[in-house]
Design goal:
Layout (H helix, E strand, L loop, with lengths): L3 E10 L2 E6 L6 E4 L6 H9 L24 E9 L2 E9 L6 E4 L2 E2 L2 H7 L2 E4 L11 H15 L3 H20 L6 H34 L7 E7 L8 H10 L1 H7 L9 E7 L4 E2 L5 H23 L4 E5 L7 H14 L3 E5 L13 E7 L4 E6 L3
Parallel strand pairs: 3-13, 3-14, 8-12, 12-13
Antiparallel strand pairs: 1-2, 1-4, 4-5, 5-6, 6-7, 9-10, 10-11, 14-15
Helix pairs in contact: 3-5, 4-5, 5-6, 5-8, 8-9
Length: 369
């Protein structure tokens, strides 16, 4: 049985007072007018993966207004390890708590049980905006292959924050830096190795597939200078950069300065110089390649979240996207303003109409368009 959510309930989450869905393993279509709460629903689904969800929102921001009572999400997910009951709860002013099979659990456990990918309208400018968004996109892909990548990133960021504090305070004694830099070198080398391995798996999945979506050549570059990639190289780079870092008041070298460089392979044109439609198609291609690679590595396709993606594709590309999702066997949660955007799916999907009732949100299962 493929990885899928078979029960989802939301209480006081965003615009939803209470919602309960019991989907089957097929793709899930959520349609309705703008502002009805479709994106809020798939944001709730995104919380079943490690991190802060697809909007990177705080627990307080997710609570329903004006009540502001906190919120709760529960779900039953079929995974390669069997069915799992997963619950998230946030009391007012408190961080999100995770429970798996009624026991407290770390977020890293979610990464072991559930693989999840997403594509949002806010990512359409990924190739032309700052490197931070591309790093985040790369790290989401990497996390799907290596659940421990999140812990390595947290360890690196914690040590870097402490090092940056010393730099801002103009501390010059090398003894204060050595232990932090050693820790950053270990976790930084792991981060870099994970990213490189993830890119290799994506490239292999692209090469092995026949698809209507264009392939992207991807490379990991340093925003300035060369990319130190091993533990010893990183430790030396941190030491050599201390003088510059002291002047800047922050760490100027390391995996946090990496950037994802993409090229439209068929044309040899940088992704940033491609048309808007080509950039969107490249992103879809990467998500599909990521999913194909996970079928081999994880033994099941990931859950895929596609927010308003069909609205920006012509009928031919929409049909191709739906065909690839169904061929993968992925439970893709897709949103759109009208059911007609999903007509090419037919009976291969399940359809839910989302409407705003004035006091909450109604989610009603309907037949195919």
């Amino acid at each position: 049985m493929p990885l899928h959510i078979n029960r989802l309930t939301l209480s006081h989450f965003r615009s939803h007072l209470y919602v309960s869905l019991t989907p089957d393993p097929r793709p899930v279509v959520l349609f309705g007018p703008n502002g009805a709460g479709k994106t809020n629903l798939i944001e709730a689904v995104s919380l079943f993966s490690p991190g802060r969800g697809m909007r990177r929102a705080s627990a307080q921001d997710m609570t329903r207004r004006p009540e502001a009572l906190g919120w709760k999400i529960t779900g039953e997910i079929t995974t390669p390890e069997g069915d799992q009951d997963i619950a998230f709860q946030s009391e007012l002013g408190q961080p999100r708590q995770v429970r798996i099979n009624d026991k407290p659990a770390p977020q890293t456990r979610l990464g072991e049980l559930v693989r999840m990918l997403w594509l949002l309208p806010s990512m359409d400018r990924l190739w032309i905006e700052g490197a931070e968004g591309r790093r985040r996109f790369l790290d989401r892909m990497t996390l799907s292959f290596f659940p421990g990548h999140g812990d390595a990133s947290l360890t690196y960021e914690k040590a870097m924050r402490e090092r940056n504090r010393l730099l801002k305070e103009q501390v010059r004694d090398p003894l204060w830096y050595k232990a932090l830099e050693a820790q950053m070198a270990v976790s930084g080398a792991e981060i870099h190795a994970n990213r490189q391995s993830a890119l290799a798996r994506i490239a292999q999945a692209q090469d092995q597939a026949s698809t209507r979506f264009p392939a992207a050549q991807l490379d990991l570059i340093q925003t300035e200078g060369e990319m130190p990639d091993g533990e010893a190289d990183l430790r030396a780079a941190f030491q050599e950069s201390r003088f510059r870092d002291l002047a800047a008041g922050r760490t100027l070298v390391g995996p946090h300065r990496a950037d994802l460089y993409g090229v439209f392979a068929a044309k040899g044109v940088p992704a940033a110089d491609s048309s808007t439609g080509e950039q969107k198609a490249l992103l879809i291609s990467l998500v599909l390649s990521n999913a194909r690679a996970l079928v081999e590595d994880f033994g099941a396709p990931p859950i895929v979240l596609l927010d308003e993606v069909p609205a920006h594709l012509d009928a031919t590309r929409r049909a191709a996207l739906y065909d690839e999702i169904c061929a993968l066997g992925a439970q893709a949660w897709m949103t759109g303003t009208g059911a007609e955007l999903f007509s090419e799916l037919g009976e291969r999907a399940q359809y839910f109409e989302v409407t705003d009732t004035g006091t909450g949100t109604a989610v009603t299962q309907v037949g195919s368009p």
